[in-house]
Design goal:
Elements lengths: L8 E3 L2 E3 L4 E4 L5 H13 L5 E3 L4 E5 L38 E2 L23 E4 L6 E2 L2 E9 L4 E8 L5 E3 L3 E2 L6 E8 L5 E11 L5 E2 L3 E5 L8 E4 L2 E4 H6 L4 E10 L8 E4 L2 E2 L4 E6 L2 E3 L6 E14 L2 E3 L8 E21 L3 E17 L3 E8 L2 E2 L9 E4 L4 E3 L2 E11 L1 E4 L2 E8 L2 E4 L6 E3 L3 E7 L2 E3 L2 E3 L13 E4 L2 E2 L15 E4 L1
Parallel strand pairs: 6-13, 8-16, 17-19, 18-20, 19-22, 20-23, 21-24, 22-24, 23-25, 24-26, 25-26, 26-27, 27-28, 27-30, 28-32, 29-32, 30-33, 31-34, 32-34, 32-35, 34-37, 35-38, 36-39, 37-40, 38-41, 40-42
Antiparallel strand pairs: 1-2, 2-3, 3-5, 4-5, 7-9, 9-13, 10-11, 10-14, 12-13, 14-15, 14-16
Length: 497
């Protein structure tokens, strides 16, 4: 019998291995498969389950006539090092993508074990702002990637059946390509806990941190400050918001008032637990104006359908806080756009940046940077992505474009378990579109165009540890032959066309 690593035709979550035998993609124990296959054939093609680990085997064309079912044999597979996958309700068909809540989770979901011989973990982030209020059908999803490809993503709510999504598609709510399903909040009231697992074809699945969403109305959890046209002081508005550790307090423009008509100026600084949302307003920031959480990581800021305007000296938008979210927002004239807190930026246009665009952890999806040029306003080195004094982990940049940069493009230091997908970056002058330095492990650059020179900097500590990989999949760097960064021909670099 052929092992699951070779001569396999995949059919969804099954692999065809000859003679009509279908083997779960999770299986690697061939003796267990053979025993279970024989039992399946003797019992009319019933599915045999092997535990541990969690395998399923069945024959679609059993040999001989069906016989009365008997109990499956107890098969003892060879010990494996990775932990067992979670025992979960079998996934429902993903065609309807509808999430049905259960009565609550019984406990933590276990970390699934490694699949096959690849060890790299899936790279995945929620593409939804947690703790928000929902009603009706709410489409929520996960952006996920893996060096070996993603087999599927599982999403479940409150212990209900897991929905399996096999392919990414455009989420109609976000406009992003992701693995998504619909949570029907109609008739529901209260918090709902959502969990997800990103499962690669081969490698280690990623169990994402769970998130909460609130179905129904609750003015205590979701109070609003509604503003008519005018200019408002940020500090005064902040004083009207009490400590707010769950749900979102919202400062928004009144119905029928455009975001250009409601302007908020000045600094916001707090050390109270706070989740504050700005919706449909213009935020103007002077040189030292910012949203500062005083290193309280329970402070979170959400800019939704906003315009954020700095000036030539504005340092950053958020600082010393736990989280920052930007959805359907326009930003201009900041020295450092994203810094100081873990990031979700989705459907964002950055009209102009002066220094760096991103120094934050997290995810950027569907972001356009129209211009990055320090001009005469700063002496600092400008970059689209730049991280230092840290180890970037599980970062995703998907569908990010930047056509006009008098600056460097992607400039990471130590980085692991991160994906850059469908990025299109053009630099001018002598600026590099790609420059990598530091320890690099499990990094995927897929279908990207770096229109400018690039290199992997040995002299700056670039190294790929033994057994780790940096993958250029359908990605070009510069105009050379081949179009790859200088120093690409080394162990650990994998090039796919």
């Amino acid at each position: 019998m052929t092992t699951p690593q070779t001569d396999i035709t995949r059919k969804g979550r099954w692999a065809v291995m000859g003679d009509g035998l279908l083997v779960s993609q999770h299986n690697t124990d061939i003796e267990a498969v053979e025993s279970a296959s024989n039992w399946s054939a003797e019992n009319g093609g019933r599915t045999a389950r092997i535990e541990p680990p969690y395998y399923e085997v069945k024959r679609t064309s059993p040999e001989g006539p069906p016989v009365d079912p008997v109990e499956p044999p107890v098969v003892e597979p060879e010990p494996v090092d990775p932990p067992e996958p979670p025992v979960v309700t079998p996934p429902v068909e993903a065609s309807d993508r509808v999430l049905v809540p259960g009565d609550g989770w019984d406990g933590p979901t276990a970390q699934p074990g490694q699949i096959g011989t690849a060890h790299e973990i899936a790279i995945a982030q929620w593409n939804v702002v947690p703790e928000q209020q929902i009603s009706g059908g709410f489409e929520l999803g996960v952006v996920a990637h893996h060096i070996e490809g993603v087999d599927h993503v599982l999403i479940g709510v409150d212990g209900g059946p897991w929905v399996q999504i096999d392919e990414p598609s455009i989420n109609p709510r976000t406009g992003s390509e992701e693995y998504w399903a619909t949570l029907d909040a109609g008739g529901q009231t209260g918090w709902q806990e959502v969990r997800a697992i990103a499962v690669p074809i081969a490698g280690t699945p990623r169990l994402l941190p769970s998130i909460r969403l609130y179905a129904g109305e609750n003015e205590t959890l979701f109070p609003e400050i509604v503003l008519q046209a005018g200019t408002y002081d940020a500090g005064e508005l902040l004083n009207r918001v009490v400590e707010h550790p769950e749900g979102w307090a919202t400062i928004r423009a009144a119905d029928g008032v455009s975001r250009e008509q409601v302007i908020i100026t000045g600094k916001m600084r707090t050390n109270r637990d706070l989740q504050l949302r700005f919706q449909g307003i213009t935020r103007k920031l002077g040189q030292w104006d910012e949203h500062n959480g005083s290193r309280n990581w329970n402070v979170k800021w959400w800019f939704d359908d906003c315009r954020i305007e700095g000036n030539t000296r504005s340092r950053w938008i958020v600082h010393e806080s736990g989280r920052q979210y930007y959805t359907d927002t326009v930003i201009t004239d900041m020295q450092t756009t994203f810094s100081g807190a873990t990031l979700l930026a989705r459907n964002v246009v950055i009209e102009r940046g002066w220094e760096d665009i991103c120094r934050a952890f997290g995810m950027m999806v569907d972001v356009k940077i129209e211009k990055l040029d320090r001009g005469e306003f700063t002496s600092y080195h400008p970059d689209i992505f730049q991280w230092y004094n840290g180890y970037i982990d599980n970062f995703i940049a998907q569908d990010v474009s930047s056509p006009n940069n008098v600056a460097q493009g992607l400039f990471p230091g130590n980085i692991k378990d991160s994906a850059f997908v469908r990025m299109d970056i053009t630099t001018v002058g002598n600026y590099r579109a790609l420059q990598m330095q530091g320890i690099t492990s499990n990094v995927l650059l897929k279908d990207c165009r770096f229109n400018g020179p690039g290199n992997l900097r040995n002299d700056k500590g670039f190294v790929i540890p033994d057994g780790e990989r940096l993958v250029f999949d359908g990605t070009t760097v510069g105009g050379g032959d081949p179009p790859l960064p200088a120093g690409w021909d080394r162990p650990g670099v994998e090039v796919r066309r």
